[in-house]
């Protein structure tokens, strides 16, 4: 047996296999699609480009579009920044950047050519500007304090963690380590205005009564509200017990 020939053949075979392996470029992992999901109009206002941690979003008839890749148009100080963080269906239909035309999806009173302009502008946003759908606008849920109390973390799968500041309800699910039952601020399920103003961790201070607070304490409250508006979705508002519109979330 010609061992030299056998070894030479094996060497050639290994070289071929190695070259083939090098030619095969690994397929890049599919990028995870960015998705915001449900967003109230109140929360949408904070997706306007001033917070670099948030994308720039616009809404057209309740559908959310990511305009982040067109910061040259929708970013702060730019031509269409008036649209950022707002519902813009009516403004698009009118071809307007007037603040009074922004913030409304009402187009039923507009003529046919305005409807056609809206469809053309939307096609441009999706086609030329590559603005993808990332969610939808949902209305705020009306809740009583009794209903809010269910969202204290005892049944998180059924009642997501929430708290209220001066009647505005926030979804604090991603802050459960801080605001859940075992957190340093165990305020889930409560109205927390006074506690935040006092920088208190006592649940007994979780009320909306601001009487007697100093200017510094009121500033504390304002700072907390700014933090929550930036970090947590606004999902509801508190209504008095017995209000007909109040529904369990």
From TrEMBL:
UniProt key word Endoplasmic reticulum: yes
Task: List, alphabetically, the InterPro entries matched.
Answer: Cyt_B5-like_heme/steroid-bd, Cyt_B5-like_heme/steroid_sf, MAPR/NEUFC/NENF-like
Is Ribosomal protein one of the keywords UniProt gives this record?
no
The record's listing under Pfam families reads: Cyt-b5
Q: What keywords would UniProt list here?
A: Endoplasmic reticulum, Heme, Iron, Lipid-binding, Metal-binding, Steroid-binding
> GO molecular function: any one?
metal ion binding
Q: Where in the cell is it found?
A: Endoplasmic reticulum
| Occurrences of domain Cytochrome b5 heme-binding (ranges) | 39-138, 143-239
Give the matching SMART domains. Answer: Cyt-b5
- Name a single GO cellular component: endoplasmic reticulum
UniProt superkingdom: Eukaryota
Instruction: List, alphabetically, the SUPFAM superfamilies matched.
Output: Cytochrome b5-like heme/steroid binding domain
Q: Give the similarity note.
A: Belongs to the cytochrome b5 family. MAPR subfamily.
- PANTHER family documented for this protein: MEMBRANE-ASSOCIATED PROGESTERONE RECEPTOR COMPONENT-RELATED (PTHR10281), NEUDESIN (PTHR10281:SF72)
The protein's name is Cytochrome b5 heme-binding domain-containing protein
Organism of origin: Chlamydomonas euryale
């Amino acid at each position: 047996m010609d061992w030299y020939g056998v070894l030479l053949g094996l060497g050639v075979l290994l070289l071929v296999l190695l070259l083939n392996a090098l030619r095969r470029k690994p397929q890049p992992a599919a990028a995870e699609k960015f998705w915001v999901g449900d967003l109230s109009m109140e929360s949408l206002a904070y997706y306007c480009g001033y917070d670099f941690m948030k994308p720039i979003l616009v809404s057209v008839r309740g559908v959310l579009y990511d305009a982040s890749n067109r910061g040259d148009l929708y970013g702060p100080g730019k031509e269409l920044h008036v649209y950022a963080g707002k519902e813009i269906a009516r403004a698009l239909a009118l071809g307007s950047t007037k603040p009074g035309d922004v913030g409304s999806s009402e187009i039923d009173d507009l003529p046919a050519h305005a409807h056609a302009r809206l469809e053309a502008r939307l096609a441009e946003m999706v086609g030329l500007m590559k603005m993808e759908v990332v969610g939808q606008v949902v209305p705020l849920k009306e809740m009583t304090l009794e209903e809010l109390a269910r969202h204290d973390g005892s049944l998180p799968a059924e009642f997501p963690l929430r708290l209220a500041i001066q009647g505005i309800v926030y979804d604090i699910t991603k802050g459960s380590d801080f605001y859940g039952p075992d957190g340093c601020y165990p305020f889930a399920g409560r109205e927390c205005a006074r506690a935040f103003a006092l920088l208190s961790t006592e649940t007994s201070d979780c009320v909306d009564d601001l009487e007697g607070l100093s200017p510094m304490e009121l500033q504390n409250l304002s700072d907390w509200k700014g933090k929550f508006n930036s970090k947590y979705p606004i999902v509801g508002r508190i209504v008095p017990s017995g209000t007909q519109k109040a529904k369990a979330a």
